[in-house]
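Cross-check.
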Amino acid sequence: MEVPCVRVAREAGEATRTTLADADLIDDTYEIAVEDGWLYIPVTNADATREALEDATIVTRTVDERETQTTPADLLAFDPSYERLGRAVLIDDDDPERAQAIADAVLESDLPVETVLNKASKVKGETRVRDWELLAGEDTEVVHREYGCEYLLDLANVYFSPRLATERHRVVEQVKADERAFDMFAGVGPFVVPFAKRGADCVGVDINAEAIDYLRENARRNGVTDRVTAINDDVRDVAADYENWADRIVMNLPHSADAFLESAVAIAGDDCVLHYYDIQHEDDPFGPGERAIRVAAEPEYEVTVETRHTVRSYAPHELNVCLDVRLER
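Predicted model, tokenized:
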């Protein structure tokens, strides 16, 4: 059957395949074909593939249907819940025997996985990290690929959520070349790096020194070092140095972003878009954030809420939301 495929040289095949897998774009119904030094990787959506891979060559060709792959569920008496992060699988199971059984099944399956980690604590502390139990693999450092960008990170020392990939891409698509973008809680760079790849000049601040080290490394890996300034500090102590600077500000610190709005207003330029993340009860998920922004910004700025967006369900009756807000002086 003829299907859309990414054509890529064999030496770049694994990196391309991993990027497509992380973006959930590989059509597993069909085999990857090899011909004359080229790989042909079947994809589910040609337009999304072009967004995930810069300069992707997409062709339509006949490929063979794939034989059924072995999944962890095939090897267990139940369907386990897990997340993929690069070549790592993340699980959350408080039964040690069951957790180890899942890890063994993951490694025995056809998933391209080397590491299995079990959550051993909730996110905690100022740096928002958690403890992990290493069930398989060598350590907690992984390489994650997302919409054409590559991130090195250590889950034991930095905060990172693969579940937010679609949300990050939604925001990234709004960025224009030559913007000045400021991420107040930058982590390893999942907003900063793709912003810079689109041509923005970026500042990323984080209180976690290890996250900033990874941000600098990820800027290097993605070829945007010249457009990224990484700062290890409390953003409230940095704001005065970037007063009236930003065209775009990201505030991805749900539960406590409101405590940093005074700094965000100081950093905002004359016409600035603010991406404000919050977690609130489903009865009024957007109201508290909007009111807090207005209190901080008005009357110096005219405040216009351009988008009220639900990112995901966070807990029973609680929603993780984003307000895209324009501040005009």
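The longest helix spans residues 96-108. The two ends are 57 Å apart (CA to CA). Passed to J.P. for a second look.
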